[in-house]
Amino acid sequence: MPIGHSSTDRGGAGISFAARRPIEVTLNDEVMAAVEGWRQAHGLSNQSEALGELVRLGLMSEIGRIYRMATSARDAALSGLFASPGDADDAEAASRFGPLQPRL
Asked: Full-prediction pTM beyond 0.70?
């Protein structure tokens, strides 16, 4: 069962755990030892379940990173809609062309 999910909540974020497909993965001993330690620490029944959960957690982490990056870029773009009078370039532009207005 995925960490943080009840036995009835098998999807979480639209991911279905009902249909599983076998894949072959080659990992070195160091990674396998880390997976095994993680599996035991989280009480999962087998390495396949542990690897599936680690992949899911990694994907969710990456999605979160991309979301934070996108919202940061959006916030930066929105803050650029209004010029700050303390900026040297803005002050020069204001003296040549008048006060700056929001770009809408």
From this structure: no
